[in-house]
Amino acid sequence: MTLSELAGISGDVGDFQVTVKEHPRYVDMDKCIACGECAAKCPKKVDSEYDAATGKRKAIYVKYAQAVPLKYQIDADNCIRFKKAGACGFCEKVCPAGAINFDDTEKIHQINVGAVILSPGFESFDPSAAGVWGYGRYPNVVTAMQFERYLSASGPTEGHLVRPSDGKEITKVAFLQCVGSRDENKCGNAYCSSVCCMYAIKEAVMAKDHVPGLRTSIFMMDMRTHGKDFDRYYQRAKDESGVRFVRCRVHGVEPEGESGDLRLHYINEEGRQVEEYFDLVVLSVGLQIPDHIKALADLTGVRLTNDRFAATSDFSPVSTSKKGIFTCGAFAGPKDIPQSVMEGSAAAAAVADVLAPARGQLSQEKTFPQERDVVNEEEKIGVFVCHCGSNIAGVVDVEAVADYAQTLPGVVHTERNLFSCSQDTQEQMVQTIKSKGLNRVVVAACTPRTHEPLFRETLKAAGLNEYLVEMANIRNQNSWVHSADPKSATAKAKDLVRMAVAKVARQISLQPISVPIIQKGLVIGGGIAGMAAALNMAEQGFEVHLVEKTESLGGNAVYLGHTWSGESIQDRAKKLIDQVQKNERIIIHKGFEVRQAEGFVGNFSTTIATRDGLTKTIEHGVGVVATGGRALRPKEYGYGRIPNVLTALEFDRLFKLKEQHAVKAKTVVFIQCVGSREGDRMYCSKVCCTHSVQSAIDLKQEDASRMVYILYRDMRTYGQRETLYKKARELGVIFINYETHGKPTVEVEHKQVNVGVWDHVLHRPLRIKADMVVLATAIVANPDAEKLNKIYKVSIDGDGFFQEAHAKLRPVDFATDGLFVAGLAHYPKPVEESVAQALAASGRAATLLSRSAVSLDAVKAEPDLRYCDGCALCIDVCPYHAIELVEVEADEAGQPHRYIKVNKAQCKGCGLCQGTCPKRGVVVQGFTMEQISSQIEAALAI
Amino acid sequence: MLDTQKVGSVMIVGGGITGMQAALDLADSGYYVYLVERSGAIGGAMAQLDKTFPTNDCSM
Amino acid sequence: MSFEPKIIAFCCNWCSYAAADLAGTARMQYPANVRIIRVMCSGMVHPEFITKALGQGADGVMVLG
């Protein structure tokens, strides 16, 4: 439901009554074919929201070229017709589908739902009001979103970097970080927006790719690249791409006369005042919750934090203060794409937790008539040529194409349709297939990527196998791209139809593959993430086996005090352990380790064993790997040699127990990034900055006269954690920045521990007499990961953490179907992110567990045993490990015989095997060697 | 309220990347989903991005 | 008569075929000499197809993926 908003809500979890207001689109969605004739004729130009006002759109428009739904809409605020009755109306006149409806009205829908998820997102901070950065006054000051559009090939300049003021090629760009973030004076947003450091580096690197020799500088307070692989990108940007990073906050931008150049004043790292000129200044604007989202929160009764984000608990990161209403994405705090995707799945899992009994109640399956067997029939091909209004017919001589199709071998019927995809044509097509007894169909229209599913349904409705249709792409790949050459376009359309006819003639009926699913889950690891995943799956109604290597549940939680927001980890972990132990659907295997596994999605069989050799085998449909991580034992700063040098976890323990060294310590020095972000471990451990800042606050609050120092590289108190950093500074904690080339030193002299570091404010070395030195050590991967890597064939990255299927879009899935990852096993992260990922893993798992079988596309590889001689070349190239070698008994001649076997559940139909096989021993149905050969022949026949 | 009286449908307000993921997962798990989007098309902010960090993959 | 080459292009369904569709959406213009054959992955293109296409008179073959 687009152009729609929540207007009211009543009721309770399980049974909400929601009022949705749908604004008029003035374009009939069922009729619009997105041909663009209307926008081409529309005389009114407006700033494009999609291009962040760097480009223009018309008053009738689609949001962007790949928009879903790809349907036009009229912006009534700007449309001439709506300003003056009877005026303009060009769009209505040119629309070939008759889709324009100026009389469209607002509609109110009453909808009954069991739960609500709020995922309204964020808005970018608008820097024009604050004035200081010159945004809105100087054309060459742009926001990062605008710069993103300039970089994009689909943007206003098609990716050419030129200055908005004069079109001059850009040679020198400055990025100013924290515009609208970490700044209460100019915008009131005290929090860190968590994404700007990353997009600024990315844009700087991409810009350098676009313009060779471009100089880029990023002005920042801290570089907060705390996510997976983020620090490596940062290093590469610095070392390989040559992006310059300057640690300072620039407070003003001034124009240099009339030239369009911009002048920045700042204090460099040597403490000198510097003046520098740039062609373009990019403001790295933060994220914030706009008023309309605040209104949505008020309407639904969801509590917000002081920063206007939805308030959540660290142990239930997607549940709002209102029962049955959930949240995901930037609404509950600024976050990046993978975290947002993760929370999307997590919110789905949390909803399923409360609605489990009603699963499947409202979703329904379509029914189709009995399929006709066409094996022994002679080919009777029907060709349907689509006009697509004037989109095809305006260029291609469709009549000539249809007449030509009639002459092709096997073709018994041809016809032309104004819109082949329209509802009435579909119904008529079903009748034609039946009455003419067609057994193969070619639709010459748009692209199979969007419309093949529709025509497959048509065939099914006509009692034909859905695979007996082929599309000839005579719009996207013909009439639209050769509109200036109708003659060639018509000739090409004939060729494309000939190719499609040749291919479909060789198509056989295929049956979608059904793979049964064992509706049970296996969770490996009984820490917070593993328990949260297991509990959610069980609450959704599935049986879960929880395997924990040690004799107790809890994992790292037993060492931790409280989350960043102050919730007690001990209390919550105890509660979680209790819930897991009491849940009847969770079977706990303590003291067991995974030894061996086989199978594939829906059908895994895992053998677990104790140290004494007691083994059990578990049959399960999905698996969640949550094997955690551990704290590094450091080798530097005198650890192990100097008694007063401790790791953060050791210090926490002493401090909690009121051990006298900790109690008496008057000067405490925290050293950050011990083992993180250097050498072989070029990643940020994400939690240590917040942890040290919290400990420093505790120390100061207990005794304000203590001297507490934090020696850091970049202070990464991201998101709403920034308030802790601020609080620590207010309490007098001293923060001193160091770089890897000048790391702190820890030495003992006459029983006194001295910490040495370079002071960047005073520009001289500093020596601190410390009573206690606390090392913020890295989180390292669990060495068991390597075992699981071999057992389940799930990949691990160079740092030993598990590798997800896609860094952005599949952050909890493994590349192997049916297996998921959560918690520290994936990457260092704080509790709420572990829980979110665990819920997400459970949510993803539930998409499989909720059905007894999955249906897969029938385009799969199949061995042809007449030719396969078991040479096994295909086994090595198969990226999905779907092919295995089978040996059969020796034949009459005494020769052992081998051939391949394809596991269709694992096969994705990519055909690497077919492309590799020298003997035609394997075929991909729907794309057989014979079919592709016939297409080549047909293409070159004339 | 009895569990059986719960309604097996969900409303998601916001069709950005996170809302779409939630919608897909819920629909795949057997729930009826209403995805409500304020603008004329789903996709949200991610659709505006050119490339993504840190893989430089196309954002579309 | 000027020379009009015939080119066979094998396009992967998930990337280059989608790109060719998008070129249409953007109304980009290019010569009508290319015939696109959709495959599920460019890895599916057997070397035999390339020799066959050239043997049957194609002036060029593109494998895009």
Notes on the structure:
- The complex is a heterotrimer of chains A (942), B (60) and C (65).
- Chain A is of the alpha/beta class.
- Chain A folds into 6 domains: 24-105, 2-Layer Sandwich (Alpha-Beta Plaits), CATH 3.30.70; 123-288, 3-Layer(bba) Sandwich (FAD/NAD(P)-binding domain); 381-508, Rossmann fold; 520-630 and 781-854, 3-Layer(bba) Sandwich (FAD/NAD(P)-binding domain), CATH 3.50.50; 631-779, FAD/NAD(P)-binding domain (3-Layer(bba) Sandwich), CATH 3.50.50; 861-924, Alpha-Beta Plaits.
- Chain A contains 24 helices and 47 strands.
- The radius of gyration of chain A is 32 Å and the shape is globular.
- The two termini of chain A are 48 Å apart.
- Chain B has a two-stranded parallel ribbon with strand order 1-2.
- The longest helix of chain B is centred in the middle third of the chain and has 12 residues, at 17-28.
- Chain C has one domain.
- The termini of chain C are far apart.
Give the SSE order of chain C as H and E letters: EHEHE
Number of separate structural domains of chain C:
1
Largest interface by Cβ-Cβ < 8 Å:
A-B, 91 and 55 residues
**Could you say what the CATH topology of the largest domain in chain A is called?**
FAD/NAD(P)-binding domain
How many beta-strand segments of chain C?
3
Mean of residue pLDDT of chain C? 92
Helix content of chain C: 25-40%
Fraction in helix of chain A: 25-40%
CATH class of the largest domain in chain A equals Alpha Beta
Order of strands, main sheet of chain A, comes to 10-17-11-12-13
Mean pLDDT of chain A: 92
